[in-house]
Amino acid sequence: MKCSFYNPQNATSPLCRDAALPTVFCHIVLGLQAALLGGGRPLMQRVGDFRLGTRSKEDSFNKDYFDFTPTLKDCCPSDISLAMPSKILRVIWKAMKNLDTIVPGVLHPSTIMYYPEIKLYANKPIYLDDNFRVTKNVYLAGDGAGTSRGITAAWASGMRSARGMITSLG
């Protein structure tokens, strides 16, 4: 008699198939998992610890270790692999290795990785012109300003804003 719990017919079914919006549901679950691990704060881990498969600890983020101060001070030193699926980690690691060939130092042991990155695209300011001007001499451009989604569009919106600024200077 052969006994197995593995059902090959379900091997390709999405994990979140029963949710109304599967991808949104999965992202919420991953975000909640990170929030639980970090006590409501984002997680941070040094690349050196990530490579070794160990959790970053608070004392490794002092000036004596690598003289590298974290950008975000209110983060929880942790192991981001506890909050992220391994397939996603492998893709991120591959991208970081590729980026390190272009920008040497990205994979330095002191580089700090933060998780999760939460993007909100609800910003919809009212612009006075096509150059993203919101009031006299105030322009909003880039990914966080609600003018774009992604680095290429952020660059383009910055160029449009710069043209508007140059035009306004006469």
Notes on the protein architecture:
The protein is of the alpha+beta class and 170 residues long. It folds into 2 domains: 15-115, no CATH class; 133-169, no CATH class. It has 4 helices and 5 strands. It has a 3-stranded mixed β-sheet with strand order 2-1-3. The longest helix is centred in the C-terminal third of the chain and has 19 residues, at 151-169.
Write the layout of secondary structure elements.
Elements: H1 22-37, E1 43-46, H2 47-52, E2 76-77, H3 86-102, E3 112-115, E4 133-135, E5 138-139, H4 151-169
Parallel strand pairs: 1-2
Antiparallel strand pairs: 1-3, 4-5
Mean pLDDT: 79
Categorize the overall geometry. elongated
The parts where pLDDT drops under 50 for at least 5 residues are 1-8
Distance between the termini: 86 Å
By DSSP, the count of extended strands is: 5
Write down the oligomeric state.
single chain
Q: Give a quick account of the main beta sheet: strands, pairing sense, barrel closure.
A: 3 strands, mixed
Strand order of the largest sheet: 2-1-3
Q: Please state the structural category.
A: alpha+beta
Determine Rg (CA atoms, Å): 21 Å
Topology pattern, helix = H, strand = E = HEHEHEEEH
Number of helices: 4
Helix content: 25-40%
Tally of structural domains: 2
Share in β-strands: 5-15%
Question: What descriptive keywords fit this protein?
Answer:
alpha+beta, 2 domains, three-stranded mixed sheet, two-stranded antiparallel ribbon, 4 helices
What's a concise summary of this model?
The chain is α+β, with helices and mostly antiparallel strands and 170 residues long.
